[in-house]
Automatic annotation (TrEMBL):
PANTHER family, per database record: CYTIDINE DEAMINASE
Biological process, per Gene Ontology: nucleobase-containing small molecule metabolic process; pyrimidine-containing compound metabolic process
Biological source species: Solea senegalensis
Residues reported to bind substrate: N65, V66, E67, N68, A69, C70, Y71
GO molecular function: cytidine deaminase activity; identical protein binding; zinc ion binding
GO cellular component assignments: cytosol
Protein name (record): Cytidine deaminase
Entry-linked NCBIfam families: cyt_deam_tetra (TIGR01354), PRK05578.1 (NF004064)
């Protein structure tokens, strides 16, 4: 894995293969998610989360959670990374790694983040990690089975629903 380009917005790596990531790329993705966790703004929960997202052309975007005194206005690390990538024109992803300070279990994305990831496909990989770098690999579909996605909006609908009050 050769580091090609780094700036404040995106990192690019060469990774052989299109579907299966090399162990080095997975390790780097987890490492970047752990680094992103260090930037978390979480004065209320004290629960730091970082994410590193890999696009299909091997660009990596990171994100951290950003809390707000009005709790529901906070942003999760996963949605932060995805939003950064989308704002730069990316729509397809290979993988995301998620990191936290949990030592006894792997971090798992909240329901909102699972649905947010699903917007961009159900078959890409999610690496749930621990601070020691160990991880569990799942797909978005495994995290959110029987999900609702963009393709569901074009499904045939019944528009003539009788009003029986």
């Amino acid at each position: 894995m050769d580091k090609v380009n780094v700036n404040s917005r995106v990192t690019h790596f060469k990774d052989p293969g299109s579907r299966h990531l090399s162990p080095e790329t997975i390790k780097k993705l987890i490492h970047l998610s752990q680094e992103a966790k260090e930037q978390a703004y979480c004065p209320y929960s004290k629960f730091r989360v970082g994410a590193a997202l890999l696009t299909h052309d091997n660009h990596m975007f990171t994100g951290c959670n950003v809390e707000n005194a009005c709790y529901n206005l906070g942003v999760c690390a996963e949605r932060n990374a995805l939003s950064k990538a989308v704002s730069e024109g990316y729509r397809t992803f290979k993988a995301i790694a998620i990191a936290s300070d949990l030592d006894d279990q792997f971090i798992s994305p909240c329901g909102g983040c699972r649905q947010f990831m699903r917007e961009f496909g159900s078959t890409w990989d999610v690496y749930l990690s621990k601070p020691n770098g160990s991880c569990v690999k799942m797909t978005v579909d495994e995290l959110l089975p029987l999900s609702f996605g963009p393709e569901d909006l074009s499904m045939k609908k019944v528009f003539d629903i009788p009003n029986e009050y």
